[in-house]
Structures are given as C-alpha cells and as structure tokens.
Amino acid sequence: MIKILPRYFIKEHIGPFFFALSIINSVFILNLVIQQLSKFLSKGISFPVIIEFLFLNTAWMLALSVPMAVLVGTIMAFGRLSSENEITAMRASGISLSKIFTSVLLVSGALAIGLVWFNNNVLPNFNHRARLLALDIARKKPMLNLESGVLYSDIPNISILVQEIAELNSISYVKKVLIDDDSEPKVTKNITAEKGELFLDDSGLLHIALFDGQLHEIDVSNPESFKRIQFEKHVIKISMIESLLRRRARGSRGDREKSAQALMETVNKNIEKIVEKKEKIRKMMQKQIDKFSKPQHTQKLKTVIQEHERLKRQIQSEVNSIQHYKKINKKFIVEVHKKYSIPAACVVFILIGAPLGVLVKKQGWAVGAALSIGFFIIYWAFLVGGEKLADREIISPFWAMWGANIFIGAFGVYLVTRTVRETNFF
C-alpha cells in the first residue's frame, strides 16, 4: 500500500495538470492573437507565418504556465481526494501524509530540473527567432488592400480607384478602373479601363493588367503636348518589394535570448572592462598628479584650470561607462536567477497547493482555481516588483528573483507541517 499510494497520488495529478496547462496556454495564445490580429490582417501575413509566430511564442508561455499548472493541478488533485474522503481513509489506516507529499515533491523537483534545461536550451533560441520574426513583420508594408469605391493611395505617386472587385486564387479581378500615375517627373498619366487584373508575384512586383481603356498623358512643362491612347490591353508593373516578408536568419541577442552560461560570459567580460576603466582612471589621475607636482612646472592659473576640467570630463566619461556596464550586469544577473527561480516555483507551489487542496475539499474546483490565481498573482507581483527594484539597485538580483520563492515557500512549509500534524492552519 505504501508503494502504491505515491504512484496513485502522482497519477491523480496528471489530468488536472495538463488540463490547467492547456487552459492557461489557450488564454496566453488568445491574448497574443488579439494583440497582433490587426497587424496580421493589415499586412497580409500568410497563415503558415502566423502559425510559426504563435509556435515560437509558446516557449515563454510554457516557461510561465508550467508552474501555474502545477499549482492548479495540485489543488484540484488534493481537493478531489480530500472531498471523497480518500485522505481521511489513508490517515485512518495509519499512513502519514508526509510520505505522499515527499513523492509529489520529488516529481515536481524533476519537473523543475527539466524546466531549467528548457529555459537555458530551448527558450533563448525561440525568443530570439520570435523577436526577429516580429521585427520582420513590423518592417513589412501593408499588402495591396483595394476596396470598391475607395481611393487606394498607399503606393507612392500612384492612386487606384475601382468600382467592383473580386478575389480568386490571389488575383484581384476589378471593373471600372481609374489610375492616376505621377511616378514620372513632370508627367501626369490618367488611365481608365473597363476591367483589369492585379496580382503580386514572389519577387515583389505588382502586375496590373488593364483591358479596354484609355491613357491620357500630359507633360507639365508643356501643357499643349497632350497624348490620348486607346488600348485593348495595357500592363503596368510596380515594384512593391517592401510588401514582401523578408526573413532574417540572425541578429544580435538580448538578455532573454541567451542561456545562463552565455549571460555570465557577458557579465564576466563586462567586469573585465570595468577593471580596465578603473585602471585607466587611476593612470589619468596619476599622470595629472605627476605633471603638476614637479617643482619646475609653471603654468598660468587659467591653463591649469582648463587641464583639470578636461581631466574631469574624461573621468566622468569613464565613470558613466562603468555605471553602464554595472547596470547591464545587474540586468543579466537578474535574468540568470530568473531562469532558475521560476522552475523552482514548481516545488514551492506543491508546498502551497497540497495543503490548500485539503483545506478546500468541499468547495469544488472553482475555489481551487481562485486560490491558484490568487497565489500566482502574489508570486508574480513579487517577481515583477523585485525585478524593478533590482534595476533601480535597491535590492540585490538574488532577493529580487528568489524572494517570492523563499517567502511563499516558507508559508507552504508551515501549511504542510500543520496538515501532516492534522492541526488547524490558523
């Protein structure tokens, strides 16, 4: 029985965990889609690119949602077992809850280790590719978006008006077309046609084929030179290469696009630069002292003041560089701690979720979900607030990222102890 029960309790967590994980990620994805929907539609982003963008962003979603799912799953699992008196029966059989808690904690510890690996090997690459894709989408100009009866003027020096439009196989079939072309200096062209076809090829060239129309051309410098050409078919080609999505394969990486090892390498390089800057300041000051401490050295007071002012500006420049490197290092060290503190929350949330699940045994999953959200809000407030305080150099990066785990974890240990001893929480 002692060997079976831990496996049984772990099995009871699997369903609620994956249920919570799917719900939380669905909320994240829906929120991202709502934020980016207008950009996708206005710029004509293809469906495969949209799917790739969402897929790349699932990495940071998983990094956050897994600890949340652990908390929700633990409360729901222990809540169900407690509401059906299975925990009471286990206690009556003389089996301590501490053995069950230990097995669940070991599994959460293994999950935390896996999440640490994920944060250092998968998440940085996904974040990097997602940022590059977002920048590529932002640089892409909107696709040709014609509307019947509305003047389209997004193409430089060209305006298009159509009265009817139909889309079929990436080709726009239009009727009653009017085009004003001012692309040539000092020449104005006015084109009308009964119908036409428009499509954009893979090279970014817009093809406009017009049928049964007239072309009117006026030279602004010589208004008397009016040309009128009637045509059965007239083709216009316009470069719209900026409307294509140009993908970049690589780019510089930010702090959330590096592993902990890469971040610490950058930190160590910055520390070396700080040491070099301090040595440079020391040498400049020593040189100035040696120069003006010589008895034979005589200069006008104005020249001496100018020399000292110049030295002051040089030192201030080096000090600013040192402060810049220190600020970057603090930001990077916060990110390093974050890669480990958030996975550690898997263990912390077991300590909170298990006793709370026993507490809400008859209140249902809604109360469990509410408690989960409440504790995660508290945890996230600690994390975000700690990061802001660390950036302002009010607290250390360690306490900024681990304070929430320590505070909530200590409270969780208290709850687990009271639960195992079968005493009231408060």
Q: Can you walk me through this structure?
A:
The protein has 426 residues and is of the alpha+beta class. It has 3 domains: 4-140 and 337-420, no CATH class; 158-243, no CATH class; 256-331. The chain is 63% helix and 16% strand. It contains 9 helices and 5 strands, in the order αααααβββββαααα. The radius of gyration is 34 Å and the shape is flat. The model has no long low-confidence stretch (mean pLDDT 84).
Provide a short characterization of the protein structure.
The chain has 426 residues and is an alpha+beta fold.
Relevant terms:
426 residues, alpha+beta, 3 domains, five-stranded antiparallel β-sheet, 9 helices, 5 strands, flat
Report the major sheet: 5 strands, antiparallel
* DSSP summary, beta strand count: 5
Strand content: 15-25%
**Which blocks of ≥5 consecutive residues have pLDDT under 50?**
none
Q: What shape does the CA trace take?
A: flat
What value does the Rg take, in angstroms?
A: 34 Å
- In total, the number of domains comes to 3
Whole-Å distance between the termini?
32 Å
Estimate the helix proportion, in percent.
Answer: 55-70%
Helix and strand pattern: HHHHHEEEEEHHHH
Number of helices: 9
Strands of the biggest beta sheet: in what spatial order?
Answer: 1-2-3-4-5
